[in-house]
Amino acid sequence: MNTQARPALRRPADPAETADLLGSVPRQTMRDVIAQKLGALITSGVFGVGDELPAERALAEAMEVSRDTVRGAIQTLAGQGVLRVVQGSRTTVARTDIAVNGPESRKVAQYDLGSVHAARLLIERQVIAEAATRITAKGLDRLARSLVMQQDCLADPLRFLICDREFHVLLYRACGNPVLADIATDLYTYQLEARRRAVSMAGAVQTSICDHRAIFFAMEARDPEAAMQAMAVHEDRIYQTTKTLLAEG
Amino acid sequence: MNTQARPALRRPADPAETADLLGSVPRQTMRDVIAQKLGALITSGVFGVGDELPAERALAEAMEVSRDTVRGAIQTLAGQGVLRVVQGSRTTVARTDIAVNGPESRKVAQYDLGSVHAARLLIERQVIAEAATRITAKGLDRLARSLVMQQDCLADPLRFLICDREFHVLLYRACGNPVLADIATDLYTYQLEARRRAVSMAGAVQTSICDHRAIFFAMEARDPEAAMQAMAVHEDRIYQTTKTLLAEG
DNA sequence: GTTAGTGGTATGCTTATCCGACCAGTCCAA
DNA sequence: TTGGACTGGTCGGATAAGCATACCACTAAC
Which DSSP letter does residue A154 get? Predict the structure, then answer.
């Protein structure tokens, strides 16, 4: 057991002094958590207006909770007008603008696009450069397979989105720094709805695949400069597309 | 309400296909959450071996839960040998190596020191440069006041730690990019235990204050290069001190 | 020895969650 | 048009968590 002698520190006389470090703990039922998770899938763009949710029984099975608990969560979102529930039919998404009140919603609503973009540029520049020098043959192979799968998704933008995320995470993880990899993954996730709308635009999937291919070639060549260049081109395109979509929104 | 026509995507035929996006939801009672929060304060170094926790009643009041719930959380940690509970006496910390199982513990235990340091250097270099060009007169004033408070804490390293964190967060928030500010704050928090042990060493508080003063002068001069230089010196010292402590641990 | 502050225990209540069963509505294929 | 599969809606009984309040027993400082 690791114990070490250390100087006697003055213990706070008032218990509230350190107890306040904890602060009030938000009370969250399973229903609340599930409502937030469903909400996150909606705000992040996985489910759009008009889309049907999986059946209550399927959600309950997947999340390993009772159908009652799922029903409670769905009722919460239905009460906010986010979901539309009709007996005998699948529950559908009515709106995607969800009130910001859960811890996860901090990520989606709080940051402006410019800040997220600037942070992404800073971090991914370093991540991609490191990845280009450190990636293994196995890592390259995974990236290549991901590209093939992406090519198969030309007619299915939602499926492409899943492959897109996999491709980016593979890149991040190749950099050898788990801290930066996780930060980059979080920043990617912030922009998921933008990505979803972007890939729905005509020709967008093909353009992204081209960008990914350029990144892959730079990785294959183990060329940090080329990798940074290719990623900057890709991210600038994402940024411009997102600004256009937001202006139209 | 923002609704937009979008291409008809192929809806997953198998409900499990999208339900699986959610995955099993970890069941967390208030007792679990509170145990994790207390654990986080221990692993992050706020409480060390031998330190007394606030009384159960004080914790209950601060976190706005019942004393029973707090007792349950404490029992959990006592069962792991982390806390020592004796009737009539304050609960004390017996060990600080807590089993990694909560979402918050991912942050403390998962990353190696080198990765956190490299990530911090990358992000804080950019943050401090931006802060040097953008900081307001009010911001400078707050930094100055923080320095004065730090000087008052020479004999009280634990109090100094609180001021240290405030100083760093003030710097981060001055950069104008909330995403980078939050990331930098998270990375600072990762190293809290190391900071706590470091400030307990003889002369460490004074050395940190000197570093902080250099950073402040660079901010006052609105000199990004000087600010980056001063921060790099400060972080390298933290890094070397932490490695020494870990080697001794 | 006394007292303040601490942890320990008990009781009764409310709420959340669970499980299984069954009812009622919708939609699609035959 | 009809039947069946799939959906949401409801119910009853059980367990667990959390809460508030009160009181008991131990510890340590004065």
Answer: T
